[in-house]
What does this fold into?
Amino acid sequence: MSANLSHLRIILADDHAIVRMGFRLLLEGVGAQVIAEADSGEAAQQLMATQDPDVLVMDLSMPGCGGLAALERIMARKPQARVVIASAHADAITAERALKLGAAGYLCKRSPPDELLRAVELVAAGQRYIDPEIASALRRADRPEHPAEALTDKEFNVFLLLAQGRSVAEVASDFHLSPNTVGTHLYHIKQKLGVQNMAELAMAAVRSGLIQV
It folds into this structure.
Protein backbone atom coordinates (compact mmCIF):
# COMPACT_ATOMS: atom_id res chain seq x y z
CA MET A 1 0.00 0.00 0.00
CA SER A 2 1.42 3.38 -0.96
CA ALA A 3 -0.28 5.40 1.75
CA ASN A 4 0.26 9.14 2.03
CA LEU A 5 -0.85 10.33 5.43
CA SER A 6 1.01 13.65 5.40
CA HIS A 7 -2.09 15.63 6.32
CA LEU A 8 -2.93 13.57 9.41
CA ARG A 9 -2.30 14.29 13.10
CA ILE A 10 -2.25 11.16 15.26
CA ILE A 11 -2.33 10.34 18.98
CA LEU A 12 -0.98 6.94 20.06
CA ALA A 13 -2.19 5.22 23.25
CA ASP A 14 -0.45 2.01 24.29
CA ASP A 15 1.26 1.05 27.53
CA HIS A 16 4.20 -0.54 25.70
CA ALA A 17 6.75 2.08 24.68
CA ILE A 18 8.26 -0.18 22.04
CA VAL A 19 4.85 -0.63 20.38
CA ARG A 20 4.30 3.13 20.34
CA MET A 21 7.75 3.59 18.81
CA GLY A 22 6.99 1.05 16.10
CA PHE A 23 3.67 2.70 15.29
CA ARG A 24 5.28 6.15 15.30
CA LEU A 25 8.05 5.09 12.89
CA LEU A 26 5.51 3.42 10.60
CA LEU A 27 3.13 6.40 10.55
CA GLU A 28 5.80 9.07 10.30
CA GLY A 29 7.39 7.08 7.49
CA VAL A 30 4.38 7.92 5.32
CA GLY A 31 4.14 11.52 6.44
CA ALA A 32 1.75 11.45 9.40
CA GLN A 33 2.50 13.54 12.48
CA VAL A 34 2.29 11.86 15.90
CA ILE A 35 1.35 14.80 18.11
CA ALA A 36 1.15 12.98 21.47
CA GLU A 37 1.44 9.60 23.18
CA ALA A 38 -0.36 8.05 26.15
CA ASP A 39 0.42 4.97 28.22
CA SER A 40 -2.97 4.49 29.91
CA GLY A 41 -6.68 4.94 29.32
CA GLU A 42 -6.76 7.93 31.64
CA ALA A 43 -3.83 9.60 29.83
CA ALA A 44 -5.59 9.02 26.48
CA GLN A 45 -8.72 10.71 27.82
CA GLN A 46 -6.73 13.71 29.04
CA LEU A 47 -5.00 14.12 25.69
CA MET A 48 -8.26 13.84 23.78
CA ALA A 49 -9.76 16.53 26.01
CA THR A 50 -7.05 19.02 25.05
CA GLN A 51 -5.98 17.88 21.56
CA ASP A 52 -7.95 17.40 18.36
CA PRO A 53 -6.20 14.66 16.37
CA ASP A 54 -7.47 13.28 13.10
CA VAL A 55 -7.18 9.76 14.54
CA LEU A 56 -6.54 8.20 17.94
CA VAL A 57 -4.84 4.78 17.71
CA MET A 58 -5.46 3.03 21.03
CA ASP A 59 -4.77 -0.31 22.71
CA LEU A 60 -7.34 -2.00 24.94
CA SER A 61 -5.17 -3.69 27.58
CA MET A 62 -3.63 -0.77 29.45
CA PRO A 63 -3.17 0.14 33.11
CA GLY A 64 -6.02 1.87 34.91
CA CYS A 65 -9.49 1.73 33.42
CA GLY A 66 -8.26 0.14 30.16
CA GLY A 67 -9.08 0.96 26.58
CA LEU A 68 -12.76 0.05 26.43
CA ALA A 69 -13.74 2.28 29.34
CA ALA A 70 -11.51 5.04 27.96
CA LEU A 71 -13.15 4.68 24.55
CA GLU A 72 -16.62 4.98 26.08
CA ARG A 73 -15.67 8.15 27.96
CA ILE A 74 -13.88 9.70 24.98
CA MET A 75 -16.85 9.10 22.66
CA ALA A 76 -19.26 10.52 25.26
CA ARG A 77 -17.27 13.76 25.33
CA LYS A 78 -16.26 13.84 21.67
CA PRO A 79 -18.77 11.92 19.54
CA GLN A 80 -16.93 13.06 16.42
CA ALA A 81 -13.64 11.45 17.54
CA ARG A 82 -12.18 8.93 15.13
CA VAL A 83 -10.64 6.00 16.97
CA VAL A 84 -8.76 2.95 15.68
CA ILE A 85 -8.39 0.17 18.24
CA ALA A 86 -5.12 -1.72 17.73
CA SER A 87 -5.33 -4.70 20.05
CA ALA A 88 -3.97 -8.15 20.74
CA HIS A 89 -7.57 -9.22 21.29
CA ALA A 90 -8.60 -11.09 18.15
CA ASP A 91 -12.00 -12.25 19.42
CA ALA A 92 -15.28 -11.06 17.95
CA ILE A 93 -16.76 -10.31 21.39
CA THR A 94 -14.27 -7.57 22.27
CA ALA A 95 -14.24 -6.15 18.74
CA GLU A 96 -18.02 -5.93 18.69
CA ARG A 97 -18.01 -4.12 22.05
CA ALA A 98 -15.44 -1.60 20.81
CA LEU A 99 -17.32 -0.93 17.57
CA LYS A 100 -20.62 -0.48 19.43
CA LEU A 101 -18.94 2.00 21.78
CA GLY A 102 -17.95 4.10 18.79
CA ALA A 103 -14.59 2.90 17.49
CA ALA A 104 -14.40 3.41 13.74
CA GLY A 105 -11.61 0.86 13.28
CA TYR A 106 -10.49 -2.39 14.87
CA LEU A 107 -7.08 -3.85 14.05
CA CYS A 108 -5.34 -6.96 15.40
CA LYS A 109 -1.72 -6.26 16.34
CA ARG A 110 -0.59 -9.39 14.53
CA SER A 111 -1.77 -7.89 11.23
CA PRO A 112 0.80 -6.78 8.61
CA PRO A 113 2.10 -3.21 9.15
CA ASP A 114 0.37 -1.93 6.03
CA GLU A 115 -2.98 -2.75 7.64
CA LEU A 116 -2.37 -0.10 10.31
CA LEU A 117 -1.76 2.49 7.60
CA ARG A 118 -4.88 1.37 5.76
CA ALA A 119 -6.96 1.51 8.95
CA VAL A 120 -5.78 5.03 9.81
CA GLU A 121 -6.30 6.28 6.25
CA LEU A 122 -9.85 4.90 6.02
CA VAL A 123 -10.94 6.06 9.47
CA ALA A 124 -9.48 9.55 8.89
CA ALA A 125 -11.57 9.70 5.72
CA GLY A 126 -14.74 8.96 7.68
CA GLN A 127 -14.93 5.28 6.76
CA ARG A 128 -14.84 2.15 8.90
CA TYR A 129 -12.05 -0.41 9.07
CA ILE A 130 -12.40 -3.90 10.56
CA ASP A 131 -9.56 -6.39 10.53
CA PRO A 132 -10.43 -9.02 7.86
CA GLU A 133 -10.15 -11.87 10.37
CA ILE A 134 -12.46 -10.11 12.82
CA ALA A 135 -14.89 -9.12 10.07
CA SER A 136 -15.16 -12.75 9.02
CA ALA A 137 -15.97 -13.82 12.59
CA LEU A 138 -18.56 -11.06 12.99
CA ARG A 139 -20.31 -12.11 9.78
CA ARG A 140 -20.61 -15.74 10.78
CA ALA A 141 -24.27 -16.50 11.33
CA ASP A 142 -23.34 -19.62 13.31
CA ARG A 143 -20.96 -17.79 15.64
CA PRO A 144 -21.63 -19.36 19.04
CA GLU A 145 -22.86 -16.87 21.61
CA HIS A 146 -20.56 -16.61 24.60
CA PRO A 147 -22.08 -15.93 28.04
CA ALA A 148 -19.93 -12.77 28.22
CA GLU A 149 -22.13 -11.25 25.52
CA ALA A 150 -24.91 -11.05 28.12
CA LEU A 151 -22.83 -8.70 30.28
CA THR A 152 -23.53 -4.98 30.28
CA ASP A 153 -20.71 -2.71 29.08
CA LYS A 154 -19.77 -1.84 32.67
CA GLU A 155 -19.83 -5.51 33.70
CA PHE A 156 -17.73 -6.45 30.67
CA ASN A 157 -15.08 -3.86 31.54
CA VAL A 158 -15.00 -5.04 35.16
CA PHE A 159 -14.85 -8.66 33.98
CA LEU A 160 -11.82 -8.00 31.77
CA LEU A 161 -9.87 -6.27 34.53
CA LEU A 162 -10.70 -8.88 37.18
CA ALA A 163 -9.80 -11.68 34.76
CA GLN A 164 -6.41 -10.02 34.26
CA GLY A 165 -5.72 -10.32 37.98
CA ARG A 166 -6.83 -6.92 39.29
CA SER A 167 -8.39 -6.88 42.74
CA VAL A 168 -11.88 -5.54 43.49
CA ALA A 169 -10.25 -2.57 45.28
CA GLU A 170 -8.02 -1.82 42.26
CA VAL A 171 -10.94 -1.99 39.83
CA ALA A 172 -12.99 0.26 42.12
CA SER A 173 -10.16 2.80 42.10
CA ASP A 174 -9.73 2.58 38.30
CA PHE A 175 -13.44 3.20 37.67
CA HIS A 176 -13.96 5.65 40.55
CA LEU A 177 -16.54 3.34 42.10
CA SER A 178 -17.01 2.00 45.60
CA PRO A 179 -15.75 -1.56 46.27
CA ASN A 180 -19.34 -2.49 47.10
CA THR A 181 -20.48 -1.43 43.61
CA VAL A 182 -17.72 -3.47 41.99
CA GLY A 183 -18.68 -6.36 44.26
CA THR A 184 -22.24 -6.12 42.96
CA HIS A 185 -20.96 -6.15 39.37
CA LEU A 186 -18.84 -9.20 40.23
CA TYR A 187 -21.88 -11.01 41.64
CA HIS A 188 -23.84 -10.41 38.44
CA ILE A 189 -20.85 -11.43 36.30
CA LYS A 190 -20.53 -14.73 38.17
CA GLN A 191 -24.25 -15.38 37.80
CA LYS A 192 -24.26 -14.68 34.06
CA LEU A 193 -21.06 -16.65 33.35
CA GLY A 194 -21.94 -19.53 35.67
CA VAL A 195 -18.64 -19.34 37.57
CA GLN A 196 -18.03 -19.73 41.29
CA ASN A 197 -14.71 -18.00 41.96
CA MET A 198 -12.00 -15.78 40.47
CA ALA A 199 -10.03 -18.72 39.06
CA GLU A 200 -13.06 -19.90 37.07
CA LEU A 201 -13.74 -16.32 35.99
CA ALA A 202 -10.20 -16.00 34.63
CA MET A 203 -10.47 -19.36 32.83
CA ALA A 204 -13.74 -18.26 31.21
CA ALA A 205 -11.91 -15.23 29.81
CA VAL A 206 -9.01 -17.36 28.56
CA ARG A 207 -11.26 -19.97 26.91
CA SER A 208 -13.15 -17.27 25.01
CA GLY A 209 -9.93 -15.62 23.83
CA LEU A 210 -10.57 -12.44 25.81
CA ILE A 211 -7.18 -12.61 27.53
CA GLN A 212 -3.95 -14.34 26.61
CA VAL A 213 -1.80 -16.44 28.95
Q: What stands out?
A: DSSP finds ten helices and six strands in the chain. The first helix runs from residue 17 to 28.
